Amino acid sequence: MKMNAYVAGVGMVPFGKHLDKTLKSLAGQAIELALNDAGLDKRQLQAAWMGNAAAGVVTGQEMIRGQVVLRSMGIGRIPVVNVENACASSSTAFQQACAMVSAGYYDIVLACGYEKLFHQDKARSLGAFSSAVDVEDPEGELNVVKKLAEAAGEPFDAAGAGQSRSVFMDIYAMMAKKHMKLYGTTIEQYAMVASKNSYHGSLNARAQFRDVLTVEQVLGARPIIDPLTLPMCSPIGDGAAAVILVSERKARQLGLRNPVRVAASELVSGWDFEHAEDSVGAYAAGLAYEAAGIGPQDLSCVELHDASAPSEIQAYEYLGLCSRGEGGALVESGATRLGGRIPVNTSGGLLRKGHPVGASGCAQIVELTEQLQGRAGARQVHGARVGLAHNGGGAIGLDAAATVVSVLVQEALT
Q1: Which pLDDT band holds residue 275 (cuts at 50, 70, 90)?
Q2: Mean pLDDT over all residues of the chain?
Q3: Which of 18, 305, 355, 390 is an active site residue?
Q4: The Thiolase N-terminal domain covers which part of the protein (predicted)?
Q5: Distance from C-alpha of 238 to C-alpha of 13, rounded to nearest angstrom
Q6: How many domains does the chain divide into?
Q7: What burial class does residue 337 get, using C-beta atoms within 10 Å of its C-beta: 0-12 exposed, 13-18 middle, 19+ buried?
Q8: Is 87 a catalytic residue?
Q9: N or C: lower Cβ tally within 10 Å for the chain?
Q10: How far apart are CA 259 and CA 179, in angstroms?
């Protein structure tokens, strides 16, 4: 969908383990930071889209999550839309907010993602992920893994899935094995993704993990499920990120400096593929490129959904950063590292920045905005002008249930 909304301000709290903080306090802090960045007062907000995935399971807060956060800040009256769409919750909130601004309904709105996943009861945290599949399937979440195992020609072993680890790691492991068989991708190349993102994360003060890992350290880390080791899997976390969006008219009134425009944002759902080469990510990316009037060759940097290291390599391919089967070679070439042709996940990605699922989509927009405005510090991509965010969520069939791809551009208001 072609958009015409501008990012006026962004805010994000450090991702990590925040057992001493409430969901309201995390979200409120991110929103205050975004308002301050925009130079706006909370009373100027006209509507809010609040993205959260797991509060009902982890904290028990259901139904009015956004209103609870905003009322605690003294924000009332305005329309508040609560958005739940698995790991794509706040990218969906962002997409919907952009659409309403672009359509002319509002001049100043908020998109926010917030999540608390750490809990004293680990089973409750894992349970949040177990519900992001079709639970009316007689075999539940494990049927997704079984189908992927059949597609990959791999034996199916459910031991530990959903108990000692998120069932999504089993899903990613089967996808990884299929890619290895089809294209010769190696476990070393998967480790290169984790190592690269650890370097990027070391430069990000808001990242959950900031230690730099070598490929050898990634390979030697604790196994989770073959071929994945711990650093190849995104961690759970707590955190929040917020974005203030304004219309072109309001952007001119505010005199935005280094304005970042949302040129396109596409929200799509999975479907029953007719062809093996189809994917939700490729479909969403194609729509976004067409709406923005660009191609992958025009991108300066990318924030993509690296819920696992193999996920990043596969995303390279369906986002068009390389040809099918060449994702492993792309990371090995150094092209996706800072200083390379197309830096990917300069924030550290989900692997190192962390993955508080409801917050991850807006956090990608925070990173891209700062990159396009030259505010990314030690991880700045030189001359960044066009950024792409890719965020997927849930699993139905053999792919994501929901995916959002957005394109942001830095351009002067004429």
Answers
A1: low
A2: 93
A3: 355
A4: 7-248
A5: 9
A6: 1
A7: buried
A8: yes
A9: C
A10: 40
What's the whole-number mean pLDDT along residues 7-25? 97
pLDDT of residue 278: 77
Q: Is 119 marked active-site? A: no
Residues whose CB is less than 8 angstroms from the CB of residue 194 and which lie 6 or more positions away in sequence, other chains included: 213, 218, 229, 231, 232, 309, 351
239: domain CATH number?
3.40.47.10
Interatomic CA distance for residues 247 and 240, integer angstroms: 24
State the residue for tokens 């990917």. Answer: 344
State the residue for tokens 């956090």: 363
Residue 138 within a domain:
no
What number is the average pLDDT over the span 283-303?
Answer: 98
Q: Looking at the domain assignment, is residue 143 inside a domain? A: no
* Rounded distance between C-alpha atoms, residue 239 and residue 30, angstroms: 9
Q: Which amino acid is at 212?
A: V
Structural domain of 253: 2-121+235-410
Mean pLDDT of 347-353: 98
Structure token digits, residue 195: 């190592």
pLDDT of 147: 76
Specify if 134 maps to a domain. no
* Amino acid in the structure at residue 115: E
Q: Which of 18, 87, 112, 362 is catalytic?
A: 87
Average pLDDT on 205-227 reads: 97
What does the alpha-carbon distance between residue 328 and residue 215 come to, in Å, rounded to a whole number? 14
Which tokens hold the place of 329? 């070679």
* pTM of the predicted protein model: 0.95
pLDDT of 158 reads 65
Residue 372 near residue 385, CB atoms below 8 Å: yes
CB 360 within 8 A of CB 319: no
Strand pairing report for 47-51 and 80-83: parallel
Give the helix ranges, DSSP H, for 13-83. Answer: 23-38, 55-58, 65-72
User: Is 239 contained in some domain?
Assistant: yes
